[in-house]
Amino acid sequence: MTNPGNDCANGKAQRVLIVSLNYAPEMIAIGVYSSGMAEYMSRNGVETHVIAARPYYPAWRTYEGWRRPWWALRRGPEGTRVVHCPIYVPRAPTGGRRILHHLSFALSAFPVLLWKALIQRPDLILLVAPSLISAPGVLAAARLSGAATWLHVQDFEVEAAFATGLLDQKSLVGRLAERFEHAVLGSFDRVSSISGPMLSRLRRKDVAEWRITEFRNWADISKVKPITGVSPLKAELGIDTPHVALYSGNLANKQGLEILPDMARRLRHRTDLTIAVCGDGPMRGILKQQAQDLPMMRFFPLQPVDRLSDLLGMADLHLLPQIAGAADLVLPSKLTNMLASGRPVLATADPDTALGQEVTGCGRLVPPGDAAALAREVEALLDDAPERTRLGAAAGARAVERWDMRSILARFREQIHAVIRDPRPAEGQRDLSRF
């Protein structure tokens, strides 16, 4: 039951609490979208509170200036009220350590959840997954406050852990994780995800149709625009080759990035090409070691947000590796801005996956793990400027059509109001018996 005193019909602003492991000042991936969602809600008349971890991503190191072992309160640029919780951050995020990492956030966030539930009484509590481990605390807080609940699935983290070998599906921990996920998915008033195939996966996990809704990631079209001519960042980074193939984002072990050095070896005869890797994460050191004999493959730090157009516009084409079995479990958040930059995307994914469906028509697909095929497609596009232009124009058009920030967040706000007004329509009831 929602709080009638906070309903817009009574002339009062609605109050939303967002629980997200990742949040600003993190500059890439889930943190960007959680921050954008919260700031949009604040800017449009919704009193918005956030519980997040201290920033650590993508390097898996707590940021400088954030290492004191207690909670930090701050206000976002639109007045969003944010509490950053202390967490355990493993330098090598293996399966067991990742579980401890997520558990530490759930434990440190729980007292803040209780305080906000009892004192501030939100109308809606929205949990971003990862991290599902925080779900019991969110559901308990919602019951105390009478809030509606919303689970937004950015990654199917349990299946992704199986696909990447972080967890053994047949182990006791793996079986418990699947049961826990099943219980969580059936306990929220709304469950959203970011693509059609990921929504289909929710249905296969027995989530009732009335609970499911789409909430896509987005591109800020006003900030990421196609560049005509040569990006000024290219000279600033000391890149003097005519062509650039770019990977920009998190360097993690779930993305199949090992294919990049292998691909580069097959292209070492292309003295007109630089393969630029821009980002940080656990795989950075490994990739640099694998590319020691490849001067064409160069590594750069993440660039500031205000240089995003210059960075993405530096590319002739974007590289988007993904491992087999994961392309329907996650839809890489970096894809939206790649498309908005007006450059073709080369992805390692099957055509019928979420990633494959989004790239088809504005890039090229090769089988996951096939470095030879990826190298062939890179070379083919480098040698076919009209095709690069055609695919790049299609990518930019798709970003506007499917991924525009303003239209996606406006629809989301309408859905937020709807679930607060009526969290359990006549065709379904929240099933807390799964817990």
From TrEMBL:
Domain of life according to the entry: Bacteria
Q: Name one GO molecular function term.
A: glycosyltransferase activity
Q: Which keywords does UniProt give here? A: Transferase
* Record bears the keyword Transferase: yes
Q: Which InterPro entries match?
A: Glyco_trans_4-like_N, Glycosyltransferase_grp1
**Residue stretches making up the Glycosyltransferase subfamily 4-like N-terminal domain:** 30-218
For this protein, the record's Pfam families field holds: Glyco_trans_1_4, Glyco_trans_4_4
Q: Does the keyword Transferase apply?
A: yes
The UniProt entry, under PANTHER family, shows: SULFOQUINOVOSYL TRANSFERASE SQD2
Q: What is this protein called?
A: Colanic acid biosynthesis glycosyl transferase WcaI
To which species is this protein native? Answer: Salipiger aestuarii
What taxonomic lineage is listed for the species of origin?
A: Bacteria, Pseudomonadati, Pseudomonadota, Alphaproteobacteria, Rhodobacterales
